[in-house]
Amino acid sequence: MKQNILNQLKHIEQTKEVEVLYAVESGSRAWGFASPDSDYDIRFIYKHELDYYLSLWDKPDTIEFMTTDDLDGSGWDLRKTLKLLAKSNAPLLEWLYSPVVYYENETFATQMRALAKDCFSPIATLHHYLGTTKKFMEACQADEVKLKSYFYALRTALAGKWIIESNSFPPVDFMKLLPIAPQNIQEKVIELMAIKANQDENYLHPKEEMITSFLEETVTFNEQHASGLGSGKKMNKELDEFFMELIKL
C-alpha cells in the first residue's frame, strides 16, 4: 500500500505542479485503532514554485483526492501550513509527530518540528481536544455505541489530560497515551481494541458504563485545569523567514 500512496503523491506533484515536502498517515491507522475497513487518511504538505506566491489574488491552498482503493488524501500548501503552525493547530501538530511517515524531506521535517515545539500552545491545543471529546460524548452515552466514537473520545480526552499533566504535546500513538488512564480503564480499552480490530466501522457495541463515566470525569478534569495553561511563543518573524527561504529553493 505504501507504494500506491507514493505513486499517488507523485501523480499529484505532476498534475498540480507542486513539490510534496512531507506525507503521513493520520486518523485511526496512525492512532493505532483501525478497523478492517478503515480508509488510509493521507495528509501532506506541499509547495509551489516561487511565482505562485507573487500573485495579487488568493489561490487554492488545499489539494484533496479520493481513490477507489480507499486512499483519502488531503494536503495543505506551505503558506497555509505555516499560518496554522503559528496558531498551534492540533491536526497539523499530529501530522508532524505521526508514527506513520510515507515521505519526508528530512531537512524540512526537522525544521518544522523545531518550530512546532516553540509554537505549541498548551491552552489552544487543550481546547481543541476538549471540543472534539465533547462532540462524541452524546454518542458515547447511547445504549449502543460505535467503537469509533469511544476511541475518538478517549484519545482526545487523554490527550487533554496529557497536556495538563506534562505541559507538552501528547503522543499521536494511542497506546502511548493509554498509561495515564487508570488500570481498569486500560484493561477495558485493550479489550475493546481487540473487538474493533475485527469489526467494521458500523459495529454497535453495548454501552460500557465504566468508559462513559471515565470520559465524563476526564472532561470535567480538563475543563477545570484549562485556565492554568500557557500559550505558545509568538513566532511570526521566524515562520516568515522560514517560508521565504523555502519558496526560493
Specify the biggest β-sheet: 5 strands, mixed
Residue-averaged pLDDT, rounded? 95
Oligomer: single chain
| CATH secondary-structure class of the largest domain | Alpha Beta
What is CATH's topology name of the largest domain?
Beta Polymerase, domain 2
The arrangement of helices and strands along the chain is HEHEEEHHEHHEHHHEHH
Helical run tally: 11
SS-based class? alpha+beta
- Tell me, briefly, the overall form: globular
Calculate the terminal CA-CA distance, rounded to whole Å.
31 Å
Descriptive overview:
The protein is an alpha+beta fold and 249 residues long. The protein folds into two domains: 1-119, Beta Polymerase, domain 2 (2-Layer Sandwich), CATH 3.30.460; 122-228. Helix content is 54%, strand content 15%. The protein has eleven helices and seven strands. The strands form two sheets. It has a five-stranded mixed beta sheet, with helices on both faces. A two-stranded antiparallel sheet has the order 6-7. α3 packs antiparallel against α11 and α7 packs parallel to α10 (209-225). The longest helix is centred in the middle third of the chain and has 20 residues, at 147-166.
Sum this structure up briefly.
This protein has 249 residues and is an alpha+beta fold. 54% of the residues lie in helices and 15% in strands.
Task: Spell out the blueprint of helices and strands.
Blueprint: H1 2-16, E1 19-26, H2 28-31, E2 40-47, E3 62-66, E4 71-77, H3 78-86, H4 90-96, E5 101-104, H5 106-119, H6 122-140, E6 144-146, H7 147-166, H8 174-177, H9 183-196, E7 204-206, H10 209-225, H11 236-247
Parallel strand pairs: 2-4
Antiparallel strand pairs: 1-2, 1-5, 3-4, 6-7
Helix pairs in contact: 3-11, 6-7, 6-10, 7-10
Pfam families: RlaP
Organism: Flavobacterium terrae
InterPro entries: NT_sf, RlaP
